[in-house]
Write a structure and sequence with these properties.
7% helix, single chain, 13-stranded antiparallel β-sheet
Length: 230
C-alpha cells in the first residue's frame, strides 16, 4: 500500500500565502490485491471556513476495483464519469477552481457501481449506476438511481473527444460534449454542458461552456487562460 498527500495544487497553496494556514489536504491509501483486484481510500481534511463551519474530515473515495483487461468494474464511492475537467485529479487542475458550468451541472462524488471497457488506446466506454444522493449518503430518499455514461475517443494522437450523459430521473437528464487538442506545448480544451427538466421550457435549461488555452513557455512554466459562460 502507498500513502499520498495532496497539498501542492494552486487551490491549496493560495490560502497558505494569504491566510497562513492550509486550506485543504487529501490523503489516500491504495494498493493491489490478488486476482486483479485493487482498492483505494481517499479522505479530505478541510480547514474551517468560519465559526459556523468548523474544520472537517470527510470521505471522498472508498473503492474496490476489478480489472480483467480490457474490462473493469469499480464499486464504492467515487467520481461519477461526467465531463473531462471534473475527472482531472485535484492536484493536476490548471486553475484554482472548476469551470462554473462543470461545478454547477456535473454530478459529483456518489455511491454506486461502474463498468468500463477499453478499445485499445482509441476509445473508452464508462457506464455506472449511482445512488443519486451524493457523497457519504447510503440511503436513497427518492428510491431513484441515476445512470451516468461517458465515452471518449482519440482519433489522432493530438486530439481527444468525449461525451457524457446522465439520466437523473424520468424527468431530468444532463449531457455534455468535450474535446482537447495538444501540440508542441500548446493546449486547447473546451466543454459544453446542459441539463433539461421535462415539462420545463428549454429556454430555462441550465447550460454552460468553457474554453481553456495553455502554453508552455519554459520547461517549468505554463500560461493558462479560460473563457466561460453559465
Amino acid at each position: 500500500a502507498t500513502t499520498e498527500i495532496y497539498t501542492l495544487s494552486l487551490h491549496d497553496a493560495l490560502p497558505i500565502c494569504f491566510n497562513a494556514f492550509l486550506n485543504r489536504a487529501r490523503a489516500s491509501i491504495d494498493g493491489a490485491l490478488p486476482a486483479r483486484f485493487a482498492y483505494r481510500l481517499l479522505v479530505e481534511f478541510q480547514a474551517s471556513a468560519g465559526v459556523r463551519s468548523p474544520a472537517t474530515v470527510s470521505l471522498r473515495e472508498a473503492v474496490a476495483r476489478w480489472s480483467p483487461s480490457p474490462w473493469a468494474i469499480t464499486a464504492g464511492e467515487f467520481k461519477t464519469p461526467f465531463t473531462r475537467e471534473y475527472l482531472i485529479p485535484v492536484p493536476q487542475l490548471e486553475m484554482a477552481d472548476l469551470a462554473v458550468a462543470v461545478d454547477s451541472i456535473a454530478p459529483r462524488y456518489d455511491v454506486g457501481v461502474m463498468g468500463e471497457v477499453a478499445a485499445g488506446l482509441h476509445a473508452n466506454l464508462y457506464i455506472g449506476v449511482f445512488n443519486g444522493e451524493g457523497a457519504n449518503a447510503i440511503a436513497n430518499r427518492d428510491s431513484v438511481a441515476i445512470v451516468v455514461a461517458r465515452v471518449t475517443t482519440r482519433p489522432l494522437p493530438q486530439l481527444a473527444l468525449g461525451g457524457s450523459y446522465s439520466h437523473d430521473s424520468p424527468d431530468s437528464l444532463r449531457w455534455g460534449v468535450d474535446g482537447v487538442v495538444t501540440q508542441s506545448g500548446a493546449m486547447v480544451r473546451a466543454e459544453y454542458l446542459t441539463r433539461h427538466v421535462r415539462g420545463r421550457d428549454t429556454n430555462r435549461d441550465d447550460w454552460g461552456w468553457y474554453v481553456m488555452e495553455g502554453l508552455r513557455v519554459l520547461p517549468r512554466v505554463q500560461l493558462y487562460a479560460r473563457q466561460e459562460d453559465f
